[in-house]
Q: What sequence folds into this?
């Protein structure tokens, strides 16, 4: 029998993601991939998987999943009160499952995105060398009730796991987003620069895997630029003063000034922020050339 | 302020950006593509991808660059040494477009606005060899240069909620084809039956930056015939190879 997970409840926004899609940006294909790379790596390390095996990305409200064969899973990132057959289980630990076991989630305790890794990884649709779901490119883009997800049948693959791994959970509650100056940073006024690094900002409800929008606006008279490359972590400033932080599913090119660029760690921290959460931009500098 | 071009800087901790002068023309594109090729063929310690736009190149790495300082210096060195060759090979693709009124939702509007007969619009739109500058915005969406000035028209004030896949449109001084159903504000002239992006093909799109596109007007009957050929897997895109 094929190893499968049955989706009893899909949760708020759940998808399968790996590191993302590379080599296809020249065709206009977004990178995609897990928002929080650290949590993905932790899941896989604990399970003894290769670090980049696909995981399930869970947003704020977790799904209810039924496993049709014995396997092991590990949950990392946000703490969404995971349960095995109704009994509380912990993040960052191996959870051994029997046939017909049910994993579900409860109250959100910390963070925004949780990751469920499975021994051997998922074996869902591969498009352009990646398992990352993206609307319009993969057949599925979010979990739906009744869906069956193929996963690896070789359970308990590795006894050499990193169960004693030291895990950093502090980033989940951090508000400091590390940023480098972007290509058009130099065209900002001093007032704008001061505002960017001293003011508090709040993330907006309109945020998703494509971009995190900021509620506060920045007085702006910078004009659009000639269409230029953008990537996850690029912070754009629109003519009306909106700050848009591009995330993993962003387009490959854009026409708004790119005022900042998040560090990878900055993206990781931002991935765990809820809509409405406070953030601060923390300036990082490139080496002097 | 004096700036030496190209300007080579890190972008965050897993990319390097190369910016050339703010110029949109074919000469600049040839220069950008020359460096793109040069960089793609150099040795990298990890997987990278180089994409171009009108006047910039982005080298994106999968993971954070270990030693940004040395890597930027290496790229600078590479770019300094190089010479621009005079020849560039490219392909010319002929794409069928049906400028029937059923598909050309805004033909009447363009005709009134520009004081051109519909026949003249079609003539002006099918005449140029459009240069592909790059693909962006959506998978398979080509940024084309070379639209006749007389066809320049503003985008719709409120975009359509859904524009059909294959629709050929004009927005300001750009013309292009929607590779899939999507919201859009361009003025629509017609429809192209050919799939611009096929996720299961390698490569997923036959077009590269630097290639050229020529539109060929087809009747609704020919359009239907092409659709049937595509469905039967028997359609062949018309391609010619050139050396400039």
A:
């Amino acid at each position: 029998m094929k190893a499968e997970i049955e989706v009893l409840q899909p949760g708020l926004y759940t998808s399968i993601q790996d590191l993302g899609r590379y080599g296809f940006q020249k065709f206009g294909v977004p990178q995609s991939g897990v928002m929080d790379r650290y949590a993905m790596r932790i899941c896989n390390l604990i399970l003894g998987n290769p670090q980049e095996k696909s995981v399930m990305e869970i947003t704020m409200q977790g799904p209810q999943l039924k496993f049709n064969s014995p396997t092991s899973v590990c949950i990392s990132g946000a703490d969404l009160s995971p349960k095995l057959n109704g009994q509380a289980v912990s993040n960052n630990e191996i959870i051994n499952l029997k046939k017909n076991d049910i994993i579900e989630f409860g109250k959100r305790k910390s963070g925004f995105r949780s990751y469920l890794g499975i021994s051997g990884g998922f074996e869902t649709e591969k498009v352009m060398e990646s398992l990352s779901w993206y609307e319009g490119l993969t057949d599925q883009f979010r979990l739906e009730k009744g869906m069956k997800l193929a996963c690896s049948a070789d359970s308990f693959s590795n006894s050499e796991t990193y169960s004693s791994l030291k895990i950093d959970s502090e980033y989940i509650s951090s508000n400091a987003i590390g940023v480098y100056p972007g290509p058009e940073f130099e065209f900002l006024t001093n007032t704008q620069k001061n505002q960017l690094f001293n003011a508090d900002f709040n993330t907006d409800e309109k945020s998703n895997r494509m971009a995190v929008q900021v509620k506060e606006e920045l007085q702006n008279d910078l004009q659009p630029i000639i269409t230029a490359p953008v990537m996850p972590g690029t912070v754009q400033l629109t003519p009306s003063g909106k700050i848009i932080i591009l995330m993993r599913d962003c387009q490959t090119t854009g026409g708004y000034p790119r005022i900042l660029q998040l560090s990878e760690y900055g993206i990781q921290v931002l991935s765990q922020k809820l809509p409405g959460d406070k953030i601060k931009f923390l300036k990082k500098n490139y080496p002097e050339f | 302020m004096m700036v030496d071009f190209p300007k080579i800087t890190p972008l965050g901790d897993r990319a390097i950006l190369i910016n050339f002068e703010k110029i949109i023309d074919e000469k600049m594109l040839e220069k950008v593509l020359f460096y793109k090729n040069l960089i793609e063929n150099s040795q990298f310690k990890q997987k990278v991808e180089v994409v171009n736009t009108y006047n910039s190149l982005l080298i994106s790495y999968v993971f954070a660059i270990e030693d940004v300082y040395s890597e930027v210096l290496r790229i600078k060195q590479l770019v300094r040494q190089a010479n621009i060759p005079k020849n560039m090979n490219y392909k010319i693709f002929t794409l069928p477009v049906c400028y029937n009124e059923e598909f050309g939702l805004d033909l009447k509007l363009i005709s009134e606005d520009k004081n051109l007969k519909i026949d003249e619009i079609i003539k002006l739109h099918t005449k140029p060899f459009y240069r592909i500058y790059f693909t962006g915005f959506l998978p398979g969406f080509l940024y084309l240069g070379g639209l006749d000035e007389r066809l320049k028209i503003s985008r719709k004030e409120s975009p359509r909620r859904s524009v059909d896949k294959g629709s050929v449109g004009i927005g300001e001084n750009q013309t292009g084809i929607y590779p899939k159903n999507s919201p859009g504000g361009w003025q629509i002239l017609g429809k192209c039956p050919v799939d611009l992006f096929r996720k299961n093909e390698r490569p997923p799109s036959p077009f590269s930056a630097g290639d050229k596109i020529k539109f060929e007007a087809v009747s609704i009957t020919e359009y239907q015939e092409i659709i049937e050929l595509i469905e039967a897997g028997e359609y062949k895109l018309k391609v010619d190879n050139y050396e400039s």
